[in-house]
Design a protein that fits this description.
Blueprint lengths: L8 H17 L2 H15 L4 H5 L8 H7 L5 H9 L17 E5 L8 E5 L1 H21 L9 E4 L7 E4 L2 E4 L1 H8 L8 E2 L2 H4 L4 H11 L5 E6 L1 H15 L9 E4 L5 H7 L8 E8 L2 E6 L7 E3 L5 E7 L21 E8 L6 E12 L2 E8 L3 E2 L6 E2 H14 L4 E11 L2 E10 L7 H19 L1 H9 L6 E4 L4 H8 L16 H18 L1
Parallel strand pairs: 1-5, 3-6, 3-7, 7-8, 8-9, 19-20
Antiparallel strand pairs: 1-2, 4-5, 9-10, 10-11, 11-15, 12-13, 13-14, 14-15, 16-17, 18-19
Helix pairs in contact: 1-6, 9-10, 10-11, 12-13, 13-14, 15-16
Length: 509
């Protein structure tokens, strides 16, 4: 594969310089309110808009009074399931052209997320903003002097009805990208279409023009696998011209120290927060400084304190009323016809103007089977601390509730990076003790339940390398946007997953 016809970085500079200036001057409250009212006006004559009195909404408060919070399951049953796959003037005007297949990480079920062409354009604009912020901080960059490598799922889309297709979100984006950008993109269509993930990774590692790739984008867990294969083929660093690694989809911390050795000196990393439902936020500063909320890219955002999410009338904050340091559930209304939709993610704000956040987990990525109220952020941090104390690198893990008699406990299934340690039998109790102590320090409810004896000491099983990949493959969820569920809160689902994983682990031995 030849390189691009010319270095397009100067053109990208021109395209983003004015945009970044506008973002820096943007008023978050005004921008979000104007966007919401514009969305409401567009959808006023849809079935959803007429049922909720969109024609009489003139403020954020009126919208919140008329439109209750809904989760995906409620939207599907009440509005989408019966007319699927042809949704015409249901929750957004016109015929819906696409459905993005979400992995259903926490529920175990595939979700069919509506995607409009307006949302595709909004997502594309947000991606350009991410590059714009990088160029703003690195004006001498030549990031478009080579190829951009997007590691995504298959770009093949299934035709459901005339004018209606579904598939991976990256496939939808590929269909809508202007053809001239193909000269700056990798992989080519014949490789991007591959659905078999193992075959696709092997083909990408073989075909990648390693010396011409300047940008690499994907989910950290799969980027690591790709870079390992590229390193085996090309040596270190496997992508010597790489200038920027863009990551999102799962927490960065568990993969950071394992990914960085594969990056050439000077390569920057930037986090983004995309979802099938919309592009939420992007890094405008360095690592750990939070992600800037996308205020004018097709989504109006609300934030419900996580502790109130199940309450009959939870407080619904937005750009005008958010506070720093509080765990919020993200709620989105969008140009894809989602209205007060509970996204399933949790965030915590570092700044209010502009709103800058950290992604802390999932609303269902929490563990409170016995009243311990562990958040995803606490679970990740405690495990990483405990693993580091025992000099273990975590590759993948999942945790869920189990019972010994009438007493509950947490069962952890952990796959270390590389081969199992020789002293795994002696190591596991030390690792469990360190994990128990780390959780006790971080969470008062966990500490109280452990002290009172209501919650037993955690248990852990160390799995051989590749066990989780084999499990995801067996479910047909290997690669792309699919992610290992960190928490399986339902005891029966967790027990079933544990049985399969332990069987795969024994087979690997």
């Amino acid at each position: 594969m030849t390189g691009p016809p010319f270095d397009a970085t100067p053109l990208l500079h021109l395209a983003t310089r004015r945009r970044i200036a506008r973002l820096l001057a943007m008023n978050p409250v005004t921008t979000q309110e104007i966007l919401l009212l514009r969305l409401v006006r567009r959808a006023a004559r849809t079935r959803f808009g007429m049922a909720h009195g969109f024609g009489r909404i003139g403020s954020v408060a009126e919208f919140q009074a008329r439109v209750p919070l809904r989760r995906y399951e409620q939207f599907w049953e009440e509005w989408w399931r019966e007319p699927y796959p042809v949704l015409r003037n249901i929750t957004w005007p016109g015929r819906l052209p696409y459905f993005a297949l979400s992995s259903g990480t926490t529920s175990g079920r595939t979700k069919y997320i509506p995607v409009t062409r307006e949302m595709v354009r909004a997502n594309r604009g947000a991606a350009v903003d991410a590059l714009g912020w990088y160029l703003h901080a690195n004006p001498r960059s030549r990031v478009f002097g080579g190829l951009s490598f997007m590691l995504g799922g298959s770009t093949a889309l299934e035709r459901l009805a005339p004018g209606v297709r579904q598939g991976d979100l990256s496939g939808i984006a590929a269909v809508e990208v202007p053809g001239f950008l193909a000269a700056w993109s990798f992989p080519p269509r014949r490789l991007a279409l591959l659905a078999d993930w193992d075959r696709k990774l092997a083909a990408l590692a073989e075909a990648a023009p390693a010396g011409r790739i300047r940008v690499l984008t994907g989910t950290p867990s799969w980027l690591l696998v790709l870079l390992e294969r590229l390193a085996a083929r090309h040596g270190h660093p496997p992508l010597p011209a790489l200038e920027l690694l863009v990551h999102g989809g799962v927490a960065w911390a568990p993969y950071r120290d394992r990914l960085l050795p594969y990056l050439p000196a000077g390569c920057a990393t930037r986090e983004v927060y995309p979802a099938s439902e919309g592009f939420v936020a992007i890094a405008d500063r360095g690592e750990g400084e939070g992600l800037r909320l996308n205020l004018d890219r097709g989504c109006f955002f609300e934030f419900v304190p996580l502790a109130e999410l199940e309450a009959p009338n939870p407080r619904r904050h937005w750009a005008a009323s958010i506070e720093t340091g509080i765990e919020y559930a993200v709620v989105v209304s969008s140009c894809a016809g989602l209205w007060a939709y509970v996204l399933g993610d949790t965030v915590r704000f570092l700044d209010r103007s502009p709103p800058r956040l950290l992604v802390t987990g999932r609303t269902s990525y929490s563990l409170s089977a016995f009243g311990e109220h562990l958040t995803g952020e606490e679970i990740d941090a405690a495990l990483l601390e405990a693993a580091a104390s025992q000099r273990i690198a975590v590759a993948e893990y999942t945790v869920g509730p189990a019972f010994h008699g009438t007493r509950g406990l947490h069962r952890w299934l952990l796959e270390p990076a590389g081969a199992l340690p020789d002293d795994a039998t002696r190591l596991t109790p030390r690792l469990v003790a360190a994990l128990d102590a780390a959780l006790t320090r971080r969470n008062d409810d966990y500490a109280a339940h452990r002290q009172a004896g209501q919650l037993g000491a955690p248990e852990m099983v160390l799995l051989r390398q590749g066990s989780f990949a084999a499990w995801m493959r067996e479910q047909g969820k290997l690669g792309g946007q699919h992610k290992v569920p960190r928490v399986i809160a339902d005891p029966d689902r967790f027990a079933a997953a544990e049985a399969v994983l332990e069987a795969l682990n024994r087979a690997a031995g």
